[in-house]
Design brief:
The complex is a heterodimer of chains A (306) and B (88). By secondary structure, chain A is of the alpha+beta class. Chain A contains ten helices and 16 strands. Chain A is globular and about 55 Å long. Chain B is globular, with a radius of gyration of 12 Å. The mean pLDDT of chain B is 90. The chains are: A alpha+beta (306), B alpha+beta (88).
């Protein structure tokens, strides 16, 4: 298997700027094109350990984050293109890397329904996965980043992909997206952490991505059994606790956090039931990352469903 | 007045005193109390009126008949969710 870092920089950069650089991301292949320097920089910093797809591999998502035409060049703008279509407004060049990552999320969120998909971070310890659903701002990405820096494997910062009828989740690792004060928190938590380009003044504020594929099996594609569902909630000033929660309420909340539960209909109900019935469910309320990581270690040591 | 199930449904019961109910016709999912789930089981056998329900919940439950108002309010809730409909 060839990883991006195995290729000479001039080769992959040429692919990126011309016919496209095809990378394996979990079960999918993205072919990425870009003529934007900050995107090139970000891919070099964040995607070095990703497997490069073979020439005859099927391309699931053909995307670009590029500046096209004189007007965009003069205005320092770029646009996201997926399969030849531009689904979003143009964006300032300085936000290009963050927008590439969001565009890649969008591809999975909108176009793949072979899995029950939850908006969730997914981490694993000893080959058992913890799915952490949450709305933006709940603290799931910050916790996910902290766990990655304490030897947990990150399966995804954004999508839990559950094959219907199984209690497993399919890894679809990509860099962890951090926003605003979370960036400084993680830098303080682990000064050795590797970040990609910072995008400022986005609709979410300042955004930076963390390289979180330090675990040796980060890019394995085999599904892992889900041992627990943890619903994180970052709450400064509140008591910290990891407490069991009802499965039925967890079912409803996880369905709320799903991209396609309703779309899948009865298949979605069955998939969610299998997932929830096979996992222990918890609320995790935290404000201190060290405490939260310890709590997750304890969970891994005895609170997960076998 | 009698009510009947509007369509089939699916239940996830984790033994927690409440159930998740998937309404097949609408695709909606509801969190229902245990008593509502019990009434749905009875309606699974066919349409019922209030008097029948009061008899049956006394027989099949713990022997304590819930007040008529309780049964009626749960039935109304299920009608409001379009899980039950009137037959006459």
């Amino acid at each position: 298997m060839t990883r991006l870092r195995d290729l000479p920089a001039c080769e992959w950069q040429q692919r990126l700027s011309q016919d496209g650089l095809a990378l394996r991301v979990g079960p999918y292949v993205y072919r990425i094109r870009s003529n934007v320097p900050v995107v090139r920089e970000g891919i070099g910093a964040m995607y070095g350990d990703f497997p490069v797809a073979q020439v005859d591999d099927y391309i699931d998502f053909d995307i670009a984050l590029s500046t096209r035409g004189l007007r965009q060049r003069l205005r320092d703008e770029a646009e996201f293109i997926c399969d030849g279509v531009t689904p979003f407004e143009r964006i300032p060049l300085g936000q290009a890397y963050a927008f590439l990552e969001w565009g890649m999320n969008w591809c999975v969120a909108l176009h793949t329904n072979e899995y029950l998909k939850l908006h969730a971070a997914v981490v694993a310890r000893d080959n058992r996965a913890v799915v952490m659903p949450g709305v933006p701002g709940a603290g799931k990405s910050t916790l996910c980043a902290a766990l990655a820096l304490r030897e947990w494997r990150v399966l995804s910062d954004e999508h839990a992909m559950i094959p219907p009828g199984s209690r497993a989740t399919v890894p679809v690792y990509r860099p962890v997206s951090l926003k605003n004060e979370s960036i400084a928190k993680i830098r303080a938590f682990a000064p050795e952490a590797v970040f990609g380009p910072q995008s400022k003044e986005t609709h979410k504020g300042v955004v930076a991505h963390l390289k979180a594929d330090g675990a040796p099996d980060s890019h394995d594609t085999a599904p892992l059994p889900v041992g627990a569902l943890v619903f994180p909630s970052y709450q400064p000033g509140s008591p910290q606790r990891l407490a069991p929660r009802r499965r039925t309420e967890s079912f409803m909340l996880a369905a709320y956090h799903s991209f396609n539960y309703s779309l899948l209909g009865e298949v979605g109900f069955d998939a969610m039931r299998t997932l929830v019935a096979g996992a222990n469910c918890y609320d995790l309320q935290y404000h201190d990352l060290d405490w939260a990581v310890d709590a997750m270690h304890q969970l891994a040591d005895g609170g997960m469903r076998e | 007045m009698k009510w009947r199930l509007q369509s089939t449904g699916r239940i996830y019961d984790a033994g927690e005193g409440q159930v998740v109910y998937f309404h097949t016709a609408s695709g909606d999912t509801h969190l229902l109390g245990e008593f509502a789930a019990h009434l749905l089981e009875l309606f699974g056998e066919g349409p019922r009126d209030l008097a029948q329900l009061l008899d049956e919940v006394a027989v099949t439950g713990d022997g304590t008949t819930p007040p008529e108002d309780t049964v009626r309010s749960v039935v109304d809730e299920l009608v409001g969710l379009d899980i039950l409909g009137r037959t006459e």
